[in-house]
Amino acid sequence: MPSFPQVMDPRPILLVTQYDGGRFAGWQRQPVVRTVQGDMEIALERLCATAVPAIGAGRTDAGVHAHGQGVGVRVPERWTPATLRRAMNATLPDDIWVAEAHRMVPEFHPRRSAIARRYGYLIGTDEAARSPFRRRYEWSIRHPLDPAALQGEADSVLGEHTFRAFAVAHTAPVDDHHRCVIQHARWVERDGGWVFEVAANRFLHHMVRFLVGTMVEVAQGRRPRGTIARLLVAPDNSGTPAPAPAHGLSLREVTYPAELYADAS
């Protein structure tokens, strides 16, 4: 292994990262199982000859995918965003890919600086959704869904609410208010099914999956309309349906203020 200068650039690099979450135990580094953060840090150490933390904008769960995870790194000064991106993609396993790399200002933090996160959840309702080429990324549902019920429940989450009923208990700090601001929530019909698009300033553990699982129950007539609104004032998740499967969910995009991009023209 060659010896590289160990002076770290004070300007972090943002790596916009995609991954297939099917073979990972989530984003966060763990001592035994394979994780996205762990594999990225292995690649960074190989390239930089020193340990380099990879800080993600969010901790996706086991099985959850990403089209635009924000990952912040500080590397030796010899690396530019372009050369680091090329080297990372030559080193990373084939289920992780760096789509973009940007030089950021020193104040940038991949998690705290984010002003929005956007997720998408895929549901397949046609017979072909059970194909091995789709079922890895979609929740295959055989019973029809009521479009008006889906969107009606989604409309209930817009704005600022407390989402204790849509989070795994005891995963947030005890003093966390569990409040999130939902900026966008929409069901879009697509060929062979639906996609739920949702954006917010923050998300709680399993939150999108709990919301999707509940909306599907309503759209199939198993729960009454207005279930989401009633659960938004519930003190816990004891009355919430099971979360939707992880494999249908993808972190699509993380948004940062334009002034944090040092390479902006």
In short:
The protein folds into two domains: 13-113, Alpha-Beta Plaits; 116-252, Alpha-Beta Plaits. It contains five helices and ten strands; from the N terminus they run βαββαβββαβββααβ. It has helices spanning 36-48, 81-91, 147-155, 207-219, 227-231; strands at residues 13-19, 55-56, 65-73, 96-103, 116-124, 139-140, 159-162, 179-190, 193-200, 249-255.
Tell me about this structure:
Belongs to the tRNA pseudouridine synthase TruA family. It catalyses: uridine(38/39/40) in tRNA = pseudouridine(38/39/40) in tRNA. This is tRNA pseudouridine synthase A. Its EC number is 5.4.99.12. Residues 17-102, 156-257 form the Pseudouridine synthase I TruA alpha/beta domain. By secondary structure, the protein is of the alpha+beta class. The protein has two domains: 13-113, Pseudouridine synthase I, catalytic domain, N-terminal subdomain (Alpha-Beta Plaits); 116-252, Pseudouridine synthase I, catalytic domain, C-terminal subdomain (Alpha-Beta Plaits, 2-Layer Sandwich), CATH 3.30.70. The chain is 19% helix and 26% strand. It contains five helices and ten strands, in the order E-H-E-E-H-E-E-E-H-E-E-E-H-H-E. Strands 1, 2, 3, 4, 5, 6, 7, 8, 9 and 10 form a ten-stranded mixed beta sheet that branches. The radius of gyration is 20 Å and the shape is globular. 39% of the residues are buried. The model is unreliable at 1-5 (pLDDT under 50).
